[in-house]
Each structure stands twice: as structure tokens, then as C-alpha cells.
Amino acid sequence: MRSTSKAFYFAAALMVLSISSAASVVLNEMELNPPEGGVDWVEIYNPDNESVDISGWTAEITDGSWVGKFPAVPAGTILPAKGFYVFNGQSSWNHNDGGYAALYSASGEVVDKTANRQDTMNNDFTYGRHPDGYDTNTDGDWGLGSATKGESNIR
Q: What is the pTM of this model?
């Protein structure tokens, strides 16, 4: 086998591994109605045993016609295995205390999306997956509890 063929197969294998790892990253927790002075935020989690390059990934919260878009993840950002990353919103965001979150890859593909949630309590309670990364695509994956921004939802 020529060396260029070996390099091609190696690169293709790495791409497959990256795609399968990226597919497991999930939205893990979201703050839709923070306490006074706080900001909306969403947390993502990598449940796999391999790191994932999340450079250029974005997220947003949509509440009716209002959309809060988080800045893209900086270049060179690696989400470690079992690691968390938090997208922070802006203090100027003003919406109706609910909505759903969506996570997008750098190419704009939807990686994960939550169901619509309401939070009228204006406190530090958030919607989170219990346990971290639990993903059966049902409402039972999520619960309301004390915020654990950037940390495990299990305390």
C-alpha cells in the first residue's frame, strides 16, 4: 500500500471517530430565567471517553419569536471526555421566561435540541439531564433542580 493511501485511510478513520464522538455531545442544563443580575446560559456535556473539538459550535435559546444566539466556541476548544462547556448569554436578553435550546456543530447541523420549557421562578433552578448526558429523547431525561453550571448535575 502506498503511503498516500495509508494517509488517506488514517484521515478517514479519524474523521469517522470525530463524527461519532461529536454525535454524543448533548445539551445538559439550561437557565431560562436567571435570578436578578444573572444571564441565560446553556451547558453541554460530552458523555464519551474521547475528547471532541467543538471549535465554531454555537447554541441558541428560542422563546416564541425571540431568539438568543450565543457566540461561537473559540477555535481550538476541546471538550474533554466527561467534560462540560457553558455558553453564557447577555444581560440585555429579555424574553418570556421559557423556550427551548438548540446546539449546532461548526457546519450548522443540529447536534441536540431540547423540548420547550417554562421557568417563571426567577431563581437559580435550572432544567438539567439527570444523570449527566442521559439521552433517551423523552421528557424523562430532564428535571428541574438547583443550578450546577459547568459541573455535574448529580450532587
A: 0.84
